[in-house]
Amino acid sequence: MDTTNKLPLDMVYHWEQAKKNSLYMTQPIGDGKVVEYTWGRAVDEARRMAAYLKSLNLPEKSRIGLISKNCAQWVMTDWAIWMAGHISVPLYPTLNADTVNYILNHAECEVLFVGKLDDWDMMKPGVPESVRCISFPLSPPNDFETWDDIVSKYPPLEENTHRDADELATIVYTSGSTGRPKGVMLSFGNMAFAAAGGIQTLGVGPEERMLSYLPLAHVFERTFVELGSLYSGFQLYFADSLDTFVQDLQRAQPTLFLSVPRLWVKFQHGVLQKLPKQKLDRLLKVPLLNRVIKKKVLKGLGLDKVKLAGSGSAPLSHDVLDWYRNLGLELLEGYGMSENFAYSHMNKPGRSRTGYVGEALPGVEVKISDEGEVLVKSPATMMGYYKDEEKTRETFTEDGFLKTGDKGEIDEMGRLKLTGRIKEIFKTSKGKYIAPAPIENRLMSHDAIEMVCVSGANQTQPHALVMLGEETRPKLADENFRKELEASFTNLIKEVNKTVDPHEQLAFITVVSDEWSIENSFLTPTLKLKRNVVEDAYQEKVDNWYAQKQPVIWQ
């Protein structure tokens, strides 16, 4: 169907009529049981929840929070919030209480939907008492009003609420360089352009199936899974737990599968534990047998029906990409940000190049600044940062291009290669942003530490490089002093890790023996750390440090 100028709610109403009795979402509820939602049932429950939200007489365009792992209610809640005339504010299901509190207060959320969570007790203290909470069927025990009670009591909203393209639809909070999340404001028009463009580029239709398991609070999953299903009408399946992930995959039999580097690597390791690499390589070279082996490996992963596989949120190593391609699964890497609803660049089948994040998607303009920074512009680009006009101004060029903070270069086919970072924020292999400065400031409270550099781009967790002060270094010859310092640093990591979100927790501290100075170019003339110089100096040792699994490493 033609989705030109169709906004998300238009698509909801379209499928409500066109595929009323067709299966849309399959939700596991434990013990191998599932609840199935047709398009008709899903829209009906969303309409009932919208009627309830309207009955609360909240101020127009109130912000409504949503904190849960992925589930059918997550998607229906997003629709219900929009139908009731409000704005959705998704929160990651792994945040600590302090960040939960900051987001709910900053966005002035009136209501919070609480779903399936691993550590609700950690988050709960961050929810202001003034916020009305509603619980999903799979939420931790609580005394909130429940989804099922509300949808059984309230008749469905009869009218089709329409929202304008330039209206604010959602605020997505992302890590800021100050450590405090920034609220990315996305309009209905931003979301529509990204979803319709992605579906068109990939040639996705209503017969596809997808498993939704990466956080829907992240734009990557929201664009290509929630909005993707709205713009093409395909089926969604949800995962029950990590333990049941393979069964969930085999139930879904996905034809489209998106993941992040960390999971692609885990899948690979799982295969290689059963079938060592040398043996697999040997079998894949045998004519006729290789097709059987490829199919068997992919079937074991639950990926044998996959037509299109994508990886995003952080770069994937060449070795892993080539390994999957050798199995007949062409992993296509893409590139996007919260600030453009994950709609920027994507490798296309048959045109991908290892090490590149692909070509600009339809409607995306891209150029490289004089400093080498990647600048992008499209109708998917955000309205700005919520309550932060100054930061919004800083993030755009005078001619309206978004400053990505990434350095890059473009090849003769228009494919983009990312070569580094202009700004200090980096991504772990989980696709999560880390702002190093606040963590560094906490580490600097230790009197033995003179300088610190938090790093770990494309690793599972960040780590810290520390240089000791002049008074401390000579004392390291004393074995007892060294042991005491090591114990002190081990405690320091524990204390710091208690104050940050799970994805920001340090894996270890490495104590360097070098001196960072102006003379050896580790510091600027004003004694600021040259982060890229420091990282480059130890790059070859980093993987070995992670392998040691020790809290303190002496370099």
Automatic annotation (TrEMBL):
The AMP-dependent synthetase/ligase domain, residue ranges: 32-386
GO CC annotations on file: membrane
Catalysis performed (reactions): a long-chain fatty acid + ATP + CoA = a long-chain fatty acyl-CoA + AMP + diphosphate
Alphabetical list of Gene3D superfamilies matching this protein: 3.30.300.30, N-terminal domain of ligase-like
Domain of life: Bacteria
Keywords: ATP-binding, Ligase, Nucleotide-binding
InterPro entries referenced in this protein's UniProt entry, alphabetically: AMP-bd_C_sf (IPR045851), AMP-binding (IPR020459), AMP-binding_CS (IPR020845), AMP-dep_synth/lig_dom (IPR000873), ANL_N_sf (IPR042099)
Single GO term (MF): long-chain fatty acid-CoA ligase activity
Pfam family, one: AMP-binding
Protein known as: Long-chain-fatty-acid--CoA ligase
